Each structure stands twice: as structure tokens, then as C-alpha cells.
Amino acid sequence: MLKDLDKIIKEIDLNKEAPVVEPDRQYYYIAKAKKYVSAQAEKLGRQLTFCVTTFGCQMNARDSEKLVGILEQIGYVEETDEEKADFIIYNTCTVRENANMRVYGRLGQLKRVKKENPHMMIGLCGCMMQEPEVVEKLKKSYRFVDLIFGTHNIYKFAELIVTRFESERMVIDIWKDTDKIVEDLPSERKFTFKSGVNIMFGCNNFCSYCIVPYVRGRERSRNPKDIIREIERLVADGVVEIMLLGQNVNSYGKNLETPMTFAQLLQEVEKIEGLQRIRFMTSHPKDLSDELIEVMKNSKKICKHLHLPVQSGSSRILQKMNRHYTKEQYLELVRKIKEAIPDISLTTDIIVGFPGETEEDFLETMDIVKQVRYDSAFTFIYSKRTGTPAAAMEEQIEEDVVKNRFDRLLKEVQEISAKVCSVHTGTTQEVLVESLNDHDASLVTGRLSNNILVHFPGTSELIGKIVDVKLEECKGFYYIGKMVE
Ligand code: 5AD
Ligand code: SF4
């Protein structure tokens, strides 16, 4: 991304002290790490390899691109077979307990692999590392891990790698919070034609079930100039679609020196020539403004898709969740959005089994699903996260009751979504081609503006292009189509 970074790094004098200011300090450590990596590579007679596994959300996926960017800059090459890699990194998630269990499970297996390859390095980062109990457990029972860092200091990855190269011990660096945002570090995009762009970090909402505010810290917005500059660079590099990322994009800009709204930011982004599609994630219903609806309605680039997590249909539960809206307010918001943008696709997140949820509360959730008719919904079983207010609430719901509600909800969601998805049958729509089809190489897979997938005959030359496709047959959650010349 930063074309002159190679040159900057080559010219760094490692005999001097490391600079104090960022990103210069990290450039220095990238240069230093590069020396260690190339010395090891020479010894082994081959290049060193890495394998990054990402758990969790789009934010983590974006963070992993930054980790990969730094790793490649210091001379590692990617190895997809984890057991063969010299440096294994898990970028972890902790939003639900099962995400933590998966990491411990995989670490158990890695212990055996590392016994056979003692020079292998293992790094852990991301949200799970922000939990003190996790780090304690790793220190006690997973001594073979080399490097542990959190969500606030991933920009220091090169510096931490150098620290690990220079000591034989487990390196741990976790910050509780930060107001720092470091720009202009390398990052390696997974796709050539689309990219996530962070617009803010952290969350101030403290929904009572959610651990994110504790592990991602307070809300911080990036400067609009930096965001625009990053997108302009991406577009110059061939990107046609961007996804603006934040835990609650609708409160973007509130804490900037010169405050600005998310809708205003979108209008600035829209002006970038060559950019064709704009997506964003995630919207909190309580902060979604009429201004945003208006901007979406008039935009030529903002995709016709809104992810609007409802979490529950019961106003009583929503209050206990600290969501700051009622069922009626949410429905009114949906009505306004659909009125302004009739062909919009709405998706959501729903939690089943929140403490104290009665059968009546659950039926309210079923009812809101029937009223809104989501294109798709991510349904989750409530997971108790230590330290959140909900974890201390009485009336945690029994597993079999939750499972039964979850199954009923999933069935309803899927039935509705198959019907909602199929309404576009027969229409011709713009599709961004993303890849060759996984199962049939004569087909390509692309995405409609409303985020639905379509498979149609085509070749790899189409990847990254926006083409017109006639949607011939709906298969529930996706379409089979045909390109229109
Ligand atoms: N249990 C279950 N689901 C949760 N989510 C967040 N915290 C929890 C939890 N403790 C879900 C919410 C959120 C999505 C990203 O994860 O639905 O929108
Ligand atoms: Fe968690 Fe609520 Fe913040 Fe989303 S808005 S990250 S659910 S606290």
C-alpha cells in the first residue's frame, strides 16, 4: 500500500536509537526484524513462513491484514498449512465463550507440533488477550506460546517480534486502553478489489451482555482526512468496493476535534472518483439518523444493505440489554428506512436466552422477525461473559429451553429469508465478481448490491469487475444467473 516504504526501510540506520514517534518507530523495528528474519532464513537455507488464523468479526479480519502486511514487510512468506509454518498467529475473538474454547483446543494441538519443531514461534493477539484471566491461564498452562499482545497495540507488532527475537522468554504486552491511532503502517489485502477500512475503534455502548467495550476500549474515530486518503490510495491500487468498519458507525465523529456525522463522512467518501461501492458495518439502531437514511437514499455508491442488529424483540429484554430502544421504536425505524429505500436488504443479529427471557419475550422476538422480514439474520445463543452486567443477572436460562427457542427462531428466520431473497428473480442487477466458484470452476461468484451471492458462468478475468447479471433462479440464499452483455 505504501509504495515508498521499502525505500524508507532500506535507508534506516540501525546503529541509531529507535525513534520515539510513530510510525517512524515501527519502521525502525520493521528494518530490525527484517535483519533477524533474513539471518535465520540464511541459516535454514530457505525463506521463513507464517500462517495467520483469524477468529471473529470483520474488524479482526482487517487487523489480520495489518499483521500480514508487517510480516511480509519483514521477510516472511505465507504458508497455508499451519503445521509447516515458522510463525503461527491466532488473532482471537472472545465475544462468545465457544470462541475461547476453540483457541484453547487448537493451542493444545500446537503444543505437539512445536515439540517437533522447537524453532516454531506462536503468537496470540486480539480480543481474547484483553481478558486478564486468559493471559493468566496462558502463562500457567501454555508456556510454549512466544508472544501475546492485545487489540490496542497491534501496530507495535514489528517491535514485539524484535523483543521476542532478542529474548528467550514469553513476551506479553497488553494495554488496558489507548487513545492512540497510528496511521501509515503496511497492510496486505486479502482481496485486490475490495477492502475494509476502519473508521473508528472501540465501543461506548456497554450493552449488558457484551464484552467488546472491555476488550476494544473506548470509542475513537479516525480523522476523516486519513480515512479519505486511505480510500484514495486503495482505489488507485484497484479497489472498487470498500466496507467502512466500526462497532457503531452511526456514532462516528462525535469525539473528533471538529465533530462530523457518519452521514457527512459517507458523502465525502462518495466523492472519491473510481470508487464504485460503499458498505458499512455495524449500525446501532439507537443512533441511526434521518440524515443517514437520506444520504443512503440519494447515493449512487452506497449499497442497498443495512445490517441493523435488533438483539431481541421484547422491549423489556431490550431494556435489560441496555440497548436504548423499544420494539416499537425499532419497527418505526425499519418502516422509515423501507419507505425511503424500498429495495433495501435488512439483516440483523439476534440473541436467544438472555437472562430472564420468558416464553412471551421470545415470542416478541419471533414477532419482530415476522414483521421486519429480514434478508438474513445471525442468531446466537446467549453466552455469559465474565465481567459484563448480564453475567451477574439472576435467572440465567436453562440450556434445553434456550436450544428449543433457538431452533424455532432459526427455522422462522430461514423460511422468511428464502422468500425475501427470491423476490429479485428475473431482474438484472449489477454484480461485483469476487471469485471462481468453490465447487464448479466454470462458474464465478459475485455479490449484488444488497449482499446476496450469485453464481454464473464466467472466467477468472471477471474477478474484481462489476457486470450485469440476470438472476434466473433463487436457491434459497443465493441465485444462479447469467451475465448480460
Ligand atoms: N452472547 C451471545 N451473543 C453475543 N453477541 C455479543 N455478545 C454476545 C453474548 N454475550 C452477539 C450480538 C452482536 C454480535 C456481534 O454478537 O448479537 O451483535
Ligand atoms: Fe457490543 Fe453493544 Fe458495542 Fe455492539 S454496540 S460492540 S453489541 S456493546
Structure notes:
- The structure is a single chain.
- Helix content is 36%, strand content 20%.
- The protein has 485 residues and is an alpha/beta fold.
- Strands 2-1-3-4-5-6 form a 6-stranded parallel sheet, with helices on both faces. It has a 5-stranded mixed beta barrel with strand order 15-16-17-19-18. A 3-stranded parallel sheet has the order 7-10-11, sandwiched between helices.
- Strand 1, helix 3 and strand 2 (77-78) form a beta-alpha-beta unit.
- Helix 2 (24-44) packs across helix 6 and helix 9 runs parallel beside helix 10.
- It is globular.
Uncertain segments are none
The distinct bound ligands, ions and cofactors come out as:
5'-deoxyadenosine, iron/sulfur cluster
Question: Portion of residues in helices?
Answer: 25-40%
- Number of strand segments: 19
User: Beta-strand level of the residues, as a percent range?
Assistant: 15-25%
Shape: globular
Terminal Cα separation, in Å?
A: 34 Å
Strand order of the largest sheet: 2-1-3-4-5-6
Figure out the total of helices: 14
- Class per helix and strand makeup: alpha/beta
Biggest β-sheet, characterized?
A: 6 strands, parallel
Mean pLDDT: 95
Radius of gyration: 23 Å
Please tag this protein with its features.
single chain; 485 residues; alpha/beta; 5-stranded mixed β-barrel; binds 5'-deoxyadenosine; binds iron/sulfur cluster
List the helices and strands and how they pair.
Blueprint: H1 5-10, H2 24-44, E1 49-54, H3 58-73, E2 77-78, E3 87-92, H4 97-116, E4 121-126, H5 132-141, E5 147-149, H6 157-166, E6 171-173, E7 194-198, E8 200-201, H7 212-216, E9 220-221, H8 224-236, E10 241-245, H9 262-270, E11 277-281, H10 290-298, E12 305-307, H11 315-320, H12 327-340, E13 345-352, H13 359-372, E14 376-381, H14 399-421, E15 428-436, E16 443-448, E17 453-457, E18 466-474, E19 478-483
Parallel strand pairs: 1-2, 1-3, 3-4, 4-5, 5-6, 7-10, 10-11, 12-13, 13-14, 17-19
Antiparallel strand pairs: 8-9, 15-16, 15-18, 16-17, 18-19
Helix pairs in contact: 2-6, 9-10, 13-14
The chain binds 5'-deoxyadenosine and iron/sulfur cluster.
Iron/sulfur cluster binds at residues 203, 205-207, 210, 212-213, 247-248, 284.
